[in-house]
Amino acid sequence: MAMVLSLVLVSCDLENEIPIDLPDYVPQVVVESYLQADKPLTLLLTNSTPFFEPFNLQDLDRVLENTFVQGAEVQISFADKTVVLDNTTFFDPLTGAFANYYSPEKLDSNYRGEISLEIILENGDEIESSTRTLEITLFDSLVVEFNDDSLARVLTYVTDDTTSVDFYRRVLHETTLDSIPDQDFLVEDKLSENGIIAFGTGYDFERGDTVINTLYHIDKAYYDYLLSVELSIAANLDPITQPGTIFSNVGGSANPLGIFTVLSFVRDTTIIGQ
Description:
With about 270 residues, the chain is mainly beta. Helices cover about 15% and strands about 40% of the residues. The protein has helices at about 1-10, 60-65, 220-235; strands at about 30-35, 40-45, 75-80, 80-85, 90, 100, 100-105, 115-120, 125-130, 140-145, 150-160, 165-175, 185-190, 195-200, 210-220, 255-260, 265-270. A hairpin with a 4-residue loop joins strand 1 and strand 2 (about 40-45). The radius of gyration is 23 Å and the shape is globular.
């Protein structure tokens, strides 16, 4: 009986296409603003696009026009002052970060109060958010260890404040910051052991290699945002998984997506063997 069933299945056409009617996609305004102490204020304002929409390099001007949201009134307020960001292009060659709203005004590294964001789009819709600067968590030590094959690993140790709930993002680059990170992951301080958090690599490095360690002390909103982005990317790679939802800390009548936060971080560059 099993053999007969197998023969029947082989003779069947199992490649029939099933059309699926997808609902019309409604774009959303996306906000990304990563403020840094003693750095100019920048913000990227774009429109989201459908997952299956083709990217036409032959009509790049139209793609860029539909992607970037221009003509908005953008202002960031802190320390009893309000800064208006100009609708102009900004590019950071060190990190590859791009923005289309910019002000040379800088956020004071000693400021610890609330920082608010207000955006009014050309159609009158509004976007708002708020955040604050967190204290930088320093590295306790960075240790380089070699194995018998003269390959090295890097161990990074951090002391966590056990009196508060903290979240971290650890990023490790090799050679330059504009390269794809070797490591990029999120950590809750509940994973610490006796207040110590340890990060490590494999024996992946040779003498003379440059390793750049960055530790971001982040708030829960940014942690949830990054985690939701990771889960959404994973869902897009699985055809049977329900699409993920992006967590945002921006709101308002524009029904936006995105994140408004301050990057508080420590960074250390290690040349292996030196």
